[in-house]
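User: Show me a protein chain along with its predicted structure.
Assistant: Here is one chain, sequence first, then structure tokens.
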Amino acid sequence: MTEDQLEQETLAWLADVGYTAVYGPDIAVDGNKPERSNYVQVVLVQRLRDAINRLNPLVPLVAREDALQQVLNLDTPVLLAANRHFHRLLVNGVPVQYQQEGETRGDFVRLIDFADATANEWLAINQFSIKGAKYTRRPDIILFINGLPLVLLGVDS
């Protein structure tokens, strides 16, 4: 079995359990259905925005956009600290404040619906190129939930 065949088998299995398979080059900045502004960007921003809006309809739009920006700009220079911060946002929700009826209200914007898995968007994207500081990498498959890359799979034949 070749590496490509194993990758395709993995994508088929993931499709069987509810993932939608997407070919990475198709959604790249120069693809036929671009969803990324460049190869450095790993979050599928519009998909995340759509999920935030879908999962948090009672939170005002300005607060939902604030939550999106908090996720996209973690402002933590140390990778381990950034990962811990992102994990808290993912599990607990993104803290936001907004004005309602003349009062400041606080809330949490959910990024994932943990109670109803079907409310989330599950993507398995293969050949998703990522440009780093020195090299461009292309993992075999990355699993996304609501536009967030959460799992990297490498398949070897």
